[in-house]
């Protein structure tokens, strides 16, 4: 999902370029720059350069302007390390592994693994059957129309909408990358597991949406298919972290630009959100959540992810800040500078909405058992919650895959970035549906609003205090939320 490259020999070209810029410099082996070697530098030198990180050697070896040098220095966040040192698992890797096992154990996934796998297989089968039925109905619809038998406008709109969404998904995320050799040809011979698990992720994600839209009541609401998607995403992000060690450790994420290198810190940071998605994929299944609440370890895990994820878990992962976006010397071209500034601001707005309302608010509603499955309105709220989760779990991995498509020039930079913005802003389309949920729990809306305002102070202590007060209100008071 994070892309790969062929090995290419470019040291000769690099040395030639450097020699042209400084003819007096001795470029013989005896004049090496000490620690500026491929093994001690976080940047690739002679192999896996252009395709691995999306940077042209010629453009990246240009003489930096003074302001570029300042930006580049500010974007570097860690001292240079050897590839051997960069191969060592970070502490967060062991934390993710431990939490993965605890989640699977307390939710009874491990104990009932055969039945879980059988259910996932059934979800995939029913989704494929639904696709066949939808294609058949679409042809029947057009055939009837050609013979003068017209259907309702609602049928035309629904079938054409499904067809458009499916065609767009397949074209952008499957056909385009396949033409570029993502899973075929000589380029597909390296990191095969990573590549094809990425393809499996896309297929899983598409089938999950099919089941959600066509068979929610009898299938999706109890399905573990979203869990396998989140699990695959967590595996993918760690696979990318250890596979692409040549990526630079930059505070600039490299994502919010048209030519920037994606930072290895950004990939590492992404594993935190994958871990949150993994918890949600189980917590939003009624049976798995009840199993968690039925044991002490599960209740501790629940409290950790519901109240304290940004206080106790988040500090173990790196942070790439929006203020550093585009700060590296090769981050953005002048013509796209304004475009990415606006886009980054839009992502900031989404992040606040997602953190406190798609995250904390919905988790609080589920934690307090405020969704009544016995009423029509309650089932609508449950479907809304699980639909928003499925939309969000896709943004975590597909966002980085879109970056891969950008630097491999499968699609232009603006196109991939707009696709990402469209994906995350699709959550705002749910606001009219959320109004009944919000209006039913105004105290929770106000509580999360207070947390959002506290977040604007950028104070970790303020956020920790908000978490503590929230936990106290839920556990030690008799408020009706």
Protein traits:
481 residues; mainly alpha; 2 domains
Outline the fold blueprint.
Blueprint: H1 11-21, H2 50-53, H3 57-60, H4 66-75, H5 83-86, H6 91-106, H7 113-146, H8 153-179, H9 192-214, H10 225-243, H11 264-283, H12 286-293, H13 296-307, H14 309-313, H15 334-367, H16 376-407, H17 413-425, H18 431-440, H19 442-455, H20 460-476
| Helix and strand run | HHHHHHHHHHHHHHHHHHHH
Q: What gyration radius follows from the Cα positions, in whole Å?
A: 24 Å
Shape, per Cα inertia axes: globular
Q: Find the count of extended strands (DSSP E, 2+ residues).
A: 0
Q: How many domains? A: 2
Distance N to C terminus: 41 Å
Largest sheet: none
Mean pLDDT: 82
Which parts are unreliable, with pLDDT below 50 for 5 consecutive residues or more? 3-77
**Beta-strand content:** under 5%
Percent helix range: 55-70%
Q: Structural class per helix/strand content?
A: mainly alpha
Task: Note the total helix count.
Answer: 20
Structure overview:
Helix content is 66%, strand content 0%. It is mainly alpha-helical and 481 residues long. The longest helix has 34 residues, at 113-146. It is globular. The protein folds into two domains: 11-65 and 76-85, no CATH class; 93-440, no CATH class. Helix 7 (113-146) packs across helix 8, helix 9 (192-214) packs antiparallel against helix 10 (225-243) and helix 15 runs parallel beside helix 17 (413-425).
